[in-house]
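Much of our argument rests on the idea that a fold can be written as discrete symbols. Part of our work consisted of pairing the sequence of a single chain with a tokenised description of its backbone. The amino acid sequence and the backbone structure tokens for this protein are reproduced below.
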Amino acid sequence: MKKFLLSILIFTCISASLLTGCASTKDLSIETAFPSKNINGVVQWGAGGGTDSLVRPLSALAEKNLGISIVVQNMAGGTGSIATQYIFDAPTDGYNLLMGAENPSMYKELGISELTYDDFDCVFLIGDETVGIVVGSDSRFKTFTEIVEAAKVDPSKIKLSTTGKGGLPWTVAAYITDVTGATFNQIPYDSDAAARMAVLNGECDFTVAKIQAGIGDYKAGTLKFLSMLSKEKVEALPEVSLVVDEYPAFDEYLPWGSFYGVFVKKGTDAAVTQKLGTAFKEASLDKSYTEILKNFNVNYLGLTGDEAKSYISTWKKNTVDALKKSGALK
């Protein structure tokens, strides 16, 4: 009987040890085996746009840290909601990354989608930036005030190229309407680059552009920044006037601008998300990438985890408040 009880005790101890060992191995494998294959990165906007221009070089550096390839593809449409839905429908294994801008924060309020960044975890928040009103170099408009006054006479004739409801130009247009009373004929395009090209080739009168997206054309002399949505002079464009100089009431909406980040679907293993975040953060500190951010005039954030979540939450609250004041949101 004693031998039988002893055998049972030994068997129980061995089983417990094996189970503990398996659990440890499983935890360890998540941290060390990932990634074991290429990662899919989906950009919400078209090739050549602001988001695309930032995430591609960052991904190229991050994949060196991860030891695999990050295959970046563009999936434009629906103010970024098509790409957002695609990643949400993908497995929560860390092999599918949403590479996007601020837009999903507002999807629910704008009736675009039930998905928001609340349904994702932020792997890495890259940065944010200042935006401005831009026209083609041969535009008849020399100031932002001239555009506003022309629109008040006949809104249908003043064309604003946008990226759709919830996009950057659409949001700024709501602020403009609230402050000045002017409305515009808004023409939607698939990306920032396409909206800007519409201005360059004369299809539209003006648009709203981030510095990093428009500064190349500005330096080439094919595009002009008429006014910056900022309270203070922008270092890269000190010669450009501020919107508050022409319309002081804009002060309540500023500062405001786009932000960029990399996300995974909520439910992805925390160790995987953290490993991805570390890889992207290390990549963002590479000298070549800090130079890209400087050239594009993107204000570096470099946030992960709770800090990234807090930033996005605050941005959303401020934007919703502003849109409600402007009447764009009821």
User: Anything to note?
Assistant: Residues 173 and 183 are 8 Å apart (CA to CA). The chain has a mean pLDDT of 88. The chain has twelve helices and eleven strands.
